[in-house]
Input
Amino acid sequence: MGQQGPHPNPPRPQHSLTLAGEETSSCAKCRLEDSYLRKPRWRWLWAMNKDIYFEKEEEMTTRLATLTRPASGVDWRQQTSHRKVGFGLALVGLMLVTVTLIINLVVAGDLGASSALSNLRLSFGLTTLAFGTIKIGIAVVLVGILIRLWHRVDSVKAALPGLKAEGDGTVQTGAIKTAFGPANVGVHTPNPHPIHRMAQTMWAPMLAMGAMALGIGTAVSFAWAGNETDVALGAWTQGLQFLGEALLLSGIAMLLGSTLRALREGGGSVQESLGLGVVTLKMPVTAKIFVFLMATGLMLGIAQFIGHIVVAGGVDQPAAWFAWLGPLRELSLGLILAGIVMALVTIGNVLAFQFNRICQIIATGM
Amino acid sequence: MTTATPRIAINTTAKSPGYSLPHKMGRALWAPMWLMSLMAFAIGFILAAARSSIVADFGVVDAGAQRLSHLVPAVMFIGFLAVFAAVSFSIARILGALRKGGGDVQETAGSEVETLKMAATARVFMGMMVMGMVLIAVMVVLHFVAAGNVGTWSAETLESWAISLEGFRRLGVAMYLFGIAFGLGTIIAVLHYQSGRIRDLAGV
Output
């Protein structure tokens, strides 16, 4: 990259340094530009977007960051209401599912009743709404975790200078192997991966779109319950509600991606603030599987929605279509959940690595 | 918002306490559960495709279609049982990393090690996970029972079973999700406590 003379990307920090025989910069935009220009196939993308890349993303990210980061100067002891709100929503969802269980048992006890089919459809719509409500509660709790992670970063930054041993000040940069996987040692906090940027930008729109699809689907389910012969209303209800569920789960997955970003950025900033080598884990296999499963699950969620639209438009044998569309939507949610497992496993590994690094800094000062 | 120092019961020990039993279970069992879920979802979807084909050729009243109408949800919900268990075990694994890591840091700093006692939210998390798992497992077994009785039981009885089992299955899923919310909420409490504890160690 070799930025010389006036820096083209003010007002970010403007200095260069030499690392492992290559010139690099503390400026995040310069390092991002460098990473694009190294790969010829991406140069055109940078040329098209370099002027707006940061501004647009930063505007969106800054707005969302106010939800997931504590404002500067906020006391770490302040308790937020995320836990209470999340638990409350989860309780509402659980109670709603209990009501729908009672509806199902009443219908099962008298299948011949005139209202049986109508009640079953009502039960379906309300159950899916209840699941969505609990998932929104989980998302609220995850936002609380993100805020608490940044308080943790501030606390570690404040405490470590007083706890660490005196090191010799040398930093060996480059790739290393750790007990937690391969890592890089640098002198600056590393840039977030593209998936981190996407997660930070997309979690809120995903949750909002999911809630909307779920809400509209629930409203359609009420119309479906009142119309015993309309196949189209049934198809719209199932398609919309489960598209909403897939989007909500994807929003949760994106929040977990944002958590991984916070861990990476926070861990790097702690080490950088102490003037130590910034040790950061390379993206582990579990994180790659997480992205793959989440994307596949979301695509299947969209595919089942399209399938239901086709049924709503009129097909010869709707029963045969519903026979595979139902399990397809379950497969979609199952894959996103399997991706969420991978994200949680990655978070567990990164936390273990960070505790190990803190112990190392305390013991050796390096 | 209120300002408060965390008021949670703690244990004090000379050394890092390491992982407790639920954490060890989480570390050992998340991967088998995750794999089992993927296999069950794949098998369930293949069975669903077979049922769709039978329904297209012979209608929903065909014995094969009726049998599969119980087998498909049974296998799919083995998948959900396993994937929700994997999510729960992964959360337990994170809580284990926080407990062991926090203890290790205190021990390395030469301080006595303070560790949170199991919070009420963690008990709710484990209780709901177990209840959700058992409820779904029982429903899966009953689906297999119903599938085995196609041709013996009347169509009305089979339908009645399907509707009842569906309601209980959903309750099992809701219990799992409810427990997961509480497990994640426990992480907030632990992070809050650790933010204060490391400041105490440094006297800042």
